[in-house]
Amino acid sequence: xxxxxxxIGGGIIGLCTAWYCCRKGFEVWLLERFDQQRDGCSFGNAGxxxxxxxxxxAAPGMVALGxxxxxxxxxPFYIRPRWDRELIRWGLRFWRAxxxxxxxxVAPLLRDLNLASRxxxxxxxxxxxxxxxxxxxxxxxxxxxxxxxxxEIKIAEQARALGLEAEVLDAAQVSRLNPGLSxxxxxxxxxxxDCHLVPERFMQGLQRLVQQAGxxxxxxxxxxxxxxxxxxxxxxRLQNGRExxxxxxxxxxxxxxxxxxxPLGLSLPMQAGKGYSLTLPAPAQHPQMGCICTExxxxxxxxxxxxxxxxxxxxxxxxxxxxxxxxxxxxRSFCRYFPAxxxxxxxxxxxxxxxxxxxxxxxxxxxxxxxxxxxxxxTGHAMMGLSLGPISGQILAQAIAGESPRRDLSLLAPxxxxxx
Length: 420
Ligand SMILES: Cc1cc2nc3c(=O)[nH]c(=O)nc-3n(C[C@H](O)[C@H](O)[C@H](O)COP(=O)(O)OP(=O)(O)OC[C@H]3O[C@@H](n4cnc5c(N)ncnc54)[C@H](O)[C@@H]3O)c2cc1C
Prior knowledge:
Blueprint (H helix, E strand, L loop, with lengths): L3 E5 L3 H12 L3 E5 L16 E2 L12 H8 L7 E3 L5 H13 L2 H26 L13 E5 L2 H16 L5 E4 H7 L9 E5 L3 E2 L2 H14 L3 E3 L4 E7 L2 E7 L4 E3 L2 E4 L5 H5 L9 E10 L9 E4 L4 E6 L2 E10 L8 H14 L14 E7 L6 E3 L7 E5 L5 H16 L20
Parallel strand pairs: 1-2, 1-13, 2-9, 4-17, 5-15, 13-20
Antiparallel strand pairs: 3-8, 5-7, 6-7, 10-11, 11-12, 14-17, 14-18, 15-16, 16-17, 19-20
Helix pairs in contact: 1-7, 1-10, 4-10
The protein binds flavin-adenine dinucleotide (FAD).
The site of flavin-adenine dinucleotide has 42 residues, from helix 1, strand 14, strand 18 and helix 10.
């Protein structure tokens, strides 16, 4: 009999893990609390695959910027003021991680993981039945100010030092790459190896593929607790009382993972980084490649004729309500960079909301906590969950199969924060 792997959570990380575990010959069960037609963080995001993102969220300067932005209700970053011990702890850990020494340590790993994941995307997108709208033309970091461009040029130099291509472009060069597009910018940096796709189409395609490959998907299967025996998980219990037994368990429940593993004595500190996107179904203009409006932290992605505009990072707990002031902030920022658009073009569009699972150091939790022999964790990917999805799934499948890791992943250890 094949060993059974039980995966908790059907977001991008869970589906990718299911796919690669299936390819390794395991019997795979995927448990998702919502329906097959769901709409979580992995669906309405900006769809960018980003080897250019070798700097995690916890970066030098982010704390000062966050404090400055905190007081502006429509800014790209917002913390809802509240007395929350977990949030304060998370903030202190973020502050400790946001330094140059640590960035130098983590950047090569993020580069390697993102590049390897890009290769996986190329393979997955070419599978029969997969129609994810993958475009491999690169992503532009648009800058409106001279200062903004100078900052992006510094990052481009770091990228080149890491072996990544990065081209500094003036406004005219950007226009030549995007004929017919009106842009109000000073210049940009192009990362030619970045890509974009339509995330909901990728998710639907992968969901179909894993089911065709024999993965048992249980929808409306809300994992509630664990049945353990010594240092092993024996089964998970669903809210309806059913037990699902397995040989290995993989936790991919996004930002909800923190609460789920608490009874196992594990600490996975995370904050929900709420973001929004709006998709214009028939925009008058659209860029040829994905764009990030760097000063405003707004992502703009052409998706097969439509145009998705997304952004903000709002730490307000597990709260999926839409804050219209922040949505208006995204729209106004976008219109400043793309002057052919006006806020009225967004009237009547329903904003999509997603909660990014954000660890304090901006790195995923990936691997097996030492205290448990058959539990694996894959979450905390923050703003890179789509991009790092396939490689995370592949790494876990190899580890569960007993293969030695191809790279040192100790920085991603799921028990790097002690439980208290
Ligand atoms: C506005 C925005 C733009 C973004 N743009 C990008 C981008 O361009 N590129 C990129 O790489 N990333 C991007 N991201 C981040 C990316 O979307 C996330 O990192 C990623 O989707 C997280 O995937 P996940 O599978 O870990 O979590 P989720 O997608 O949240 O999936 C977790 C799943 O677990 C299920 N679950 C939870 N608890 C239980 C339980 N108890 N039992 C059963 N199931 C459970 C949930 O229902 C959910 O389906 C963006 C995010 C936002 C908000």
